[in-house]
Structure formats: C-alpha cells, structure tokens
C-alpha cells in the first residue's frame, strides 16, 4: 500500500525539479541572447574584431581594442575657417 | 583645485616634429608638461615596430619570416599584432590592401629605404609579381608564430604606420590623461578629448596647398601615389601596388584621404582607393566613411560627409 506522504514528497520534488529546469532554460536562453546582442553590437560598424595582444606594459591596448574604440558615434571631421592655424597635417605618403 | 591659469596652460597644445621612417612625425598634446615623456614613448614604440617589421633591416623579425618562407617562424607579440592588423585590413578591403605584395614592391624597384632608391641610378624594374594572397599567410596567435609560402615576401608598410599612430595615441592619452594627436607620414590618430577639435591640413604632399578640416577623434589618413616615386628604365614608379597585377597602381585616383574611427581603418580605405580605384569604392560607400578623392586630372570628389567647406588654400 502506498501512503499519501511519499506521494506528496515526490510531487514536491518533481515540482522543484521542473522549476529548476525551467529556470535553467530561461537563464540559458537569456544568457545566449545577451551574448548574441553584445557580439552584434561589437560588429555593428562592420569591423572585424581580432584577439591579438601585445606583450608590453600597455598590453591592454591590443588591436582588438583599437577596433573596439571604433564605436565612437559619428564622424570626427568638421569644417573650419581656412585661416585657422593648423595643428597637424595629413600629407600623402 | 585647478586654477584658471592652470586650465589655460593645460588647454594649450604643444607639438614636436622630427623625421623617421622617411616621413614627418609629429606629436601634439594639450598638456605641455607631458610632451617630453610622450615623445620619448612614441620614439621607443617606433623603434620597437622598426625592429619587428622593417623591410629594410636584415635583423628585423619580418626579414627573418621572409627569409624562412615555407616554415613557421617564432616572433614577438608585437609582430603578431602587426601581421594580425595587416590581415584584418586585407579582409576589410577585399584584398586591395594585401601584405603579400612584398615581392611586387621589390620588383617595382622599392627594395631599400626610399631615399636610397631615389638617389641611386635608375634601376631596371622586374616584371610585375601579383600578390600571392593574404589568405596564405599563416598566423598562430597563441604560439606567436608567422609563416608565409615560399616565394612570398610580407610587406607591412601599408598598415604599420597607422597601427603605430593608433596605439601611441591611445596609450599616451590614457597614460597622461590628455588629448593627443599622433601624425606619422599621412596617418593621423586623435585620442582623448581636446578642448577644441584639432585643425588639420590635408594635402597630397607635404608643402602642397591644404584643405583644412577639424578632427575631434578617430583616424585621418592620406594615401597617394604622388609622393614616394622613383625612376626606372620604364619611367617613374611608385609604392602603391595593385595586388591584382603586382604593378604600381594606375587607377582613377592619385590621392585619397579618409576619416575612420581608427587610423588603421582609415588607411585601409585610403590605400585601397588608390590601389584598386573603383573596386574599393563600393566598400567605402558601405562603410560610410568620409573621403576626399583627387583624380589624375586634379578633380576633387568629396564623399559621405567630408566637410564641403574645406578648400585648398
């Protein structure tokens, strides 16, 4: 004869297991979505990120950092009066 | 607390100019107190890049990679970065900026420093050698090894200057907490936040009439086939190689200036436009970077938001 108590314990265990599985699935899907969103944002400017790094004291500035910094919005160029003194030159080389 | 006088001093830009890599190098900062240290750091970085990637030094790592073509060669992380960036540039440009044009550049006569090439007697240029293809370059980032197929010579000249400008500007700006403008040849990179955007003169060659623009951030580069030229028995040659033919480029634009978020990216497009002409225009249009093109007859085309008020003075 099966008593009522083991059955309710089993039901409670099954409910908890089910809830844990759902939570895992939701977190997994959410995490995947977040990763996809981050990667999509990183590639939004069409750049191809690289993972190379350098071994000097500023190793945080790898080529991938340069690509990452390309997220600055808008062009950095503007107009100026032709009489303005120049501070730099982009001469063909 | 910062006083008004300190703020005025700090916002005053100062620069130092010198020659290296057969071109003009200029470093500008908006904090006079850091100029000396910043110049020292830039020169040290350029020395390291030269030892790693110079095509004209027998003791460079690049020379070792080229000598040992056909096998993987252990290299420094610095050369890994430089090769990596050159391959990214090749990918972005659809192969128009290809680091495997080394043999073609040598065949065209550019086998020494440009000053030596110009000063010697006219050399017989060899037949053009099409680039063997950037896809054939083997790069193992984890083990820091580089290999090229036999008969291939790597030339990182198209991207190394821009990479150095990018890296120096970012590092110096972060280290000193000021706005920095690094100029190496035609490759500029601005980093940090200047009180006012930098005023830049854009010209086909040093000393030519300039079109002035302001630059607040990012990279601005100018590539041209009018500057690094030398005599051959077939006439004048220049250093911008069309990888498809292996010969000096002969497209519709002799000079291209491009703005992009980084100097490497700007240089990739400006070089591609001079090297392959119309073939590179579609990629530039998709990228939406402002550009200024000078045709063979001098006609100027400004694209994608290049400041139209700029005029040659």
Oligomer: heterodimer
Total DSSP helices of chain B: 9
Largest sheet of chain B: 8 strands, antiparallel
CATH topology of chain B: T-fold
Termini separation of chain B: 43 Å
* Contiguous helical run count of chain A: 2
Tell me about the largest β-sheet of chain A: none
What general outline of chain B do the C-alpha atoms trace? globular
Share of helix of chain B, binned: 25-40%
Question: Notable features of this structure?
Answer:
heterodimer, A: 93 residues, mainly alpha, B: 313 residues, alpha+beta, T-fold, 17 strands, 34% helix, globular
Task: Explain what this protein looks like in three dimensions.
The complex is a heterodimer of chains A (93) and B (313). Chain A is built from 2 helices and 2 strands; from the N terminus they run ααββ. Chain A is mainly α. Chain A has a domain at 1-41. Chain A is rod-shaped and about 90 Å long. Chain B has 313 residues and is of the alpha+beta class. Helices cover 34% and strands 25% of the residues of chain B. Chain B is built from 9 helices and 17 strands. The longest helix of chain B is centred in the middle third of the chain and has 20 residues, at 157-176. Chain B starts with a helix and ends in a 10-residue tail after the last strand. The relative contact order of chain B is 0.14. The model of chain B is unreliable at 1-10 (pLDDT under 50). Classes of the chains: A mainly alpha (93), B alpha+beta (313). At the A-B interface, helix 2, strand 1 and strand 2 of A face strand 2, helix 4, helix 7, strand 7 and strand 8 of B. Strand 2 of chain A pairs parallel with strand 8 (198-203) of chain B, so a sheet runs across the interface.
């Amino acid at each position: 004869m099966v008593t009522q108590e083991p059955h309710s314990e089993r039901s409670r265990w099954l409910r908890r297991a089910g809830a844990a599985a759902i939570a895992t699935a939701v977190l997994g899907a959410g995490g995947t979505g977040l990763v996809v969103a981050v990667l999509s944002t990183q590639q939004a400017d069409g750049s191809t990120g690289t993972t190379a790094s350098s071994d000097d004291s500023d190793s945080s500035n790898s080529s991938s950092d340069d690509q990452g910094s390309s997220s600055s919005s808008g062009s950095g160029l503007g107009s100026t009066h032709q009489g303005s003194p120049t501070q730099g030159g982009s001469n063909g080389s | 607390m910062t006083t008004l006088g300190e703020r005025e001093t700090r916002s005053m830009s100062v620069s130092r100019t010198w020659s290296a890599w057969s071109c003009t190098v200029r470093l500008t900062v908006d904090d006079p107190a850091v100029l000396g240290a910043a110049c020292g750091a830039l020169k040290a970085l350029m020395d390291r890049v030269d030892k790693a990637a110079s095509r004209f030094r027998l003791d460079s790592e690049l020379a070792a990679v080229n000598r040992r073509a056909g096998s993987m060669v252990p290299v420094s992380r610095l050369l890994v970065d430089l090769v990596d960036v050159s391959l990214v540039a090749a990918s972005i440009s659809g192969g128009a900026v290809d680091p495997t044009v080394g043999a073609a550049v040598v065949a065209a006569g550019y086998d020494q420093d440009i000053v030596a090439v110009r000063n010697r007697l006219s050399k017989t240029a060899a037949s053009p050698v099409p680039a063997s293809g950037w896809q054939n370059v083997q790069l193992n980032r984890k083990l820091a090894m580089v290999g090229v197929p036999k008969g291939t010579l790597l030339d990182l000249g198209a991207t190394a200057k821009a990479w150095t400008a990018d890296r120096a500007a970012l590092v110096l700006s972060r280290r000193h907490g000021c706005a920095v403008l690094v100029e190496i040849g035609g490759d500029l990179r601005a980093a940090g936040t200047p009180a006012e955007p930098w005023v830049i003169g854009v010209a086909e060659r040093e000393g030519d009439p300039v079109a002035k623009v302001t630059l607040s951030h990012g990279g601005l580069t100018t590539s041209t086939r009018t500057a690094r030229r030398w005599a051959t028995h077939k006439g004048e040659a220049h250093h911008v190689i069309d990888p498809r033919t292996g010969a000096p480029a002969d497209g519709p634009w002799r000079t291209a200036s491009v703005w992009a978020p980084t100097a490497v990216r700007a240089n990739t497009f400006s070089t591609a436009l001079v090297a392959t002409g119309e073939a590179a225009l579609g990629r530039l249009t998709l990228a939406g970077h402002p550009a200024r093109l000078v045709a063979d007859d001098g006609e100027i085309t400004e694209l994608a938001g290049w400041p139209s008020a700029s005029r040659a003075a």
